[in-house]
Design a protein that fits this description.
The complex is a heterotrimer of chains A (221), B (216) and C (264).
Chain A lengths: L7 H5 L1 H35 L2 H15 L3 H15 L6 H26 L3 H9 L4 H31 L11 H12 L2 H32 L2
Helix pairs in contact in A: 2-5, 2-7, 2-8, 3-5, 4-5, 5-7, 6-7, 7-9, 8-9
Chain B lengths: L1 H42 L2 H16 L2 H14 L6 H26 L3 H9 L4 H32 L10 H12 L2 H34 L1
Helix pairs in contact in B: 1-2, 1-4, 1-6, 1-7, 2-4, 3-4, 4-6, 5-6, 6-8, 7-8
Chain C lengths: L9 E12 L2 E12 L3 E5 L6 H8 L7 E6 L2 E2 L13 H8 L2 E4 L11 H11 L5 H14 L15 H13 L5 E5 L7 H16 L4 E4 L3 H7 L2 E6 L2 E6 L1 H6 L5 H14 L1
Parallel strand pairs in C: 3-8, 3-9, 6-7, 7-8
Antiparallel strand pairs in C: 1-2, 1-4, 4-5, 9-10
Helix pairs in contact in C: 3-4, 3-5, 4-5, 5-6
The chains are: A mainly alpha (221), B mainly alpha (216), C alpha/beta (264).
The structure holds adenosine-5'-triphosphate and magnesium ion.
The site of magnesium ion has 3 residues of chain C, from helix 1.
């Protein structure tokens, strides 16, 4: 293999990568924020709902989990506007897709978290005269949060990696930046080495930071 | 509109078959590679353990799409020429192998230490302990997550459409290019992926229940 | 049944064995000889090194100095005194000569009661399936479980599981049987059935070293009692002598007093 590495061109276009990384993080953050909202609402609804609602929520969860993300991205960006009258940018469309996508995974996370809240805690809440709504807000959700935080962190890290799929609809995130440099400079090995390092460092730094947050949350009130 | 799609059905079926074929290859190859590396990770000498750890953490730390592009565009750059089909299979296999390594490690680690000790106490050698005591038990814990993880190979395989390989995803996009019937075709594709993956995750859940009974 | 080992040649010879975990010395120059047919019970407070001593005898645990011989052969190290660890194959062969019964049973959950017993017979002793099966059935009969041969461990009670554990160990015809608190994980009403099996093996002349908290059993069924404290042998002798040494041995007195207090 007589390939000599030369990173000069990569550094010259590094703004494509650094900007891409920031956008990846932004996409992941907005998506998980909406995803958490979807997941929470549906999980709370699910545990108290009748069979029909449960069936519908389960269908949403199972559908999303068993279909490739890239297909969902195409479906929302190219498919939906052909049947309903909406127009959105690729970026908005991708965030919507990833939010729905993470929402489906988070419903599961939150649902099992809610079911893991010890019966005794809920009874204790009743005993001191809390209304069902207060019990949810002050007893069940805080306990559930503590239980589900590690799974939430993991979901966020994998969403961060999933943002790479946005490149297929030309959202200029990190993988798109890599492809741009790939096609325009042909320093192929170099660009993917750098991008691999960027995903790894960012991903593991996030993981480390989130584990710290979890530890803090477990001990703090 | 329906007639146009009906006309495209054989083409879609071919794409679907290719999706299944890629997934099958990846699943089988990664099973072999993953089990071997996984055993290396659990029982190997320190340098091997480190190598496998780094391999697995690196692969699992980057998006599959980056891995696919890296292999597809990177290999020719260093003088290795693979057909795009095999480049895709290689990339997905690397990704899946790292998963199998972790399933195997988890399965073996879940067997209590007392099991090896009891096996030692009756005079079994290291290989016999693995073959007759550890692996048969680890297998039950390995199988459900592994079958469930096959869905990741099927879903991941949709990304090979980006290399110009006519799998189900690519076939759908091509038919849409001709018919402009985006929504029905995406939904049809989603249902096909769903059918395969749901069957797999269902099987995995059933197995888990069955093995749970045997355990205790 | 031999009552004292001082004159008869030792089947198990533990000589000045020491062992540390990190900076903690767990065994301090322990010496003990056990003659063929003897039943030696080991008692002592928690953390005194009883389990570690047993695990050294079949080399589940290595030790730092001293020697452990069975029938004159060093257990874990090559002959010649160079303290070179035996090969994996040699070690397996040596371990097959000692049987071990565990506190937590450690039955193989994927194998039936008979399968648990047959594994060593076929893979280590090289017996045919049929032969191994009839040996397994014989021993299951001895421990009162002939009808459970094809049950999985999960389908057996704790007492039944432990009896299979004993059958698995003795079916290998070991020279010596090591038992580590084999009734501690059992409900009180199941202890009796397991001890009865041990007693009948003792009557058959099986050599045993048994760690136990069943003081009545130690007194009635053993040829000698070893009292361990702080990693060393603090008292050893026939049951009556050792239990009588309470008057002179401060540690033994505290141990027995605490023990009696916990019983009532
Ligand atoms: N693998 C190990 N690593 C570090 N320390 C250990 C290990 N195994 C045992 N020890 C320590 O060695 C000492 C002796 O332990 P051992 O299990 O032999 O005691 P024991 O007499 O069997 O106690 P018990 O009655 O509680 O079973 C204890 O202080 C224990 O904490
Ligand atoms: Mg002990």
């Amino acid at each position: 293999m007589g390939y000599t590495l030369n990173f000069n061109l990569i550094w010259r276009h590094f703004d494509k990568l650094s900007g891409g990384l920031l956008l990846s993080l932004e996409l992941a953050l907005i998506s998980i924020a909406i995803g958490i909202a979807i997941g929470l609402v549906l999980a709370v609804w699910y545990v108290s709902a009748g069979r029909i609602v449960r069936g519908v929520i389960a269908a949403y969860v199972e559908f999303i989990r068993n279909v490739p993300l890239i297909l969902l991205v195409y479906l929302v960006f190219y498919g939906l506007p052909t049947v309903i009258d909406i127009a959105y940018s690729a970026q908005t469309s991708f965030v919507a897709t990833l939010a729905l996508y993470s929402g489906a995974y988070l419903v599961e996370v939150f649902r099992s978290g809610l079911e893991a809240v010890p019966r005794g805690q809920i009874d204790a809440g009743k005993a001191i005269g809390l209304t069902p709504w207060q019990r949810l807000l002050h007893v069940r959700l805080p306990t559930m949060m503590r239980i589900t935080l590690p799974a939430l962190s993991n979901t966020f890290i994998s969403l961060f990696k999933d943002t790479s799929v946005a490149s297929v609809i030309s959202v200029p995130e990190l993988t798109y930046g890599a492809q741009w440099i790939n096609f325009n400079t042909f320093r192929i090995v170099e660009v993917y080495l750098v991008v691999t390092a960027m995903y790894l460092v960012t991903g593991y730094a996030l993981l480390f930071a989130l584990r710290l947050v979890e530890r803090w949350y477990r001990t703090a009130r | 509109m329906l007639s146009q799609i009906a006309y495209a059905l054989p083409f879609l079926a071919e794409g679907f078959a290719l999706t299944l074929w890629v997934s099958l290859l990846v699943v089988v190859l990664s099973l072999f590679a993953g089990v071997i590396l996984g055993v290396g990770l659990v029982y190997g000498p320190a340098p091997l353990r480190w190598a496998v750890r780094i391999f697995s953490d690196t692969i699992r730390g980057i998006p599959i799409l980056v891995l696919i592009f890296f292999v597809y565009y990177g290999l020719p750059a260093v003088g290795v020429h693979l057909q795009s089909f095999w480049a895709a299979v290689l990339a997905l296999t690397l990704f899946k192998t790292a998963q199998v390594v972790e399933y195997l490690r988890g399965a073996v680690a879940s067997i209590p230490k007392g099991q090896s000790e009891a096996a030692m106490a009756i005079g079994l050698t290291f290989r016999q302990r693995l073959a007759y005591v550890i692996f048969p038990q680890a297998f039950r814990r390995f199988l459900p997550p592994w079958i469930n993880g096959v869905t990741d190979a099927v879903k991941g395989s949709a990304l090979v459409s980006l290399l110009g390989i006519t799998d189900l995803m690519q076939a759908i996009n091509q038919v849409i290019g001709r018919t402009y019937e985006a929504m029905p075709l995406y939904i049809l594709g989603a249902l096909l992926y769903f059918a395969v993956n749901y069957a797999l995750s269902y099987a995995s859940r059933r197995l888990e229940q069955r093995f749970a009974f045997i355990r205790e | 049944m031999a009552t004292s080992s001082n004159d008869s040649p030792a089947l198990l010879d533990i000589a000045e064995v020491s062992k540390s975990f990190g900076s903690v010395e767990v065994l301090r120059s322990v010496s003990l000889k056990v003659a063929k047919g003897e039943v030696v019970t080991v008692i002592g407070p928690s953390g005194s090194g009883k389990t570690t001593l047993l695990r050294c005898v079949n080399f589940l645990e290595s030790y730092d100095s001293g020697s452990i011989r069975i029938d004159g052969k060093e257990v874990g190290f090559r002959d010649g005194g160079a303290r070179q660890r035996r090969s994996e194959r040699d070690l397996a062969g040596m371990r097959a000569e000692t049987g071990m019964v565990f506190q937590g049973f450690n039955l193989f959950p994927h194998l039936t009661a008979a399968g648990n017993i047959m594994l060593g017979l076929t893979k280590v002793r090289g017996k045919s399936k049929g032969e191994a099966r009839s040996i397994a059935e014989h021993w299951l009969g001895r421990v009162g479980l002939a009808h459970k041969a094809d049950s999985l461990p999960a389908e057996l009670s704790g007492g039944q599981q432990q009896r299979v554990g004993i059958a698995r160990a003795v079916a290998m015809e070991p020279k010596i049987l090591l038992l580590d608190e084999i009734t501690s994980a059992l409900d009180p009403e199941l202890v009796g059935e397991v001890l009865a099996v041990v007693k009948s093996l003792a009557e058959d002349g099986m050599t045993m070293v048994m760690v136990t908290h069943e003081m009545a059993f130690a007194r009635d069924a053993s040829s000698r009692i070893v009292f361990m404290a702080d990693g060393g042998v603090s008292a050893v002798g026939p049951p009556k002598e050792v239990l009588a040494a309470e008057t002179t041995n401060e540690r033994l007195r505290t141990f027995l007093a605490r023990f009696r207090a916990s019983q009532f």
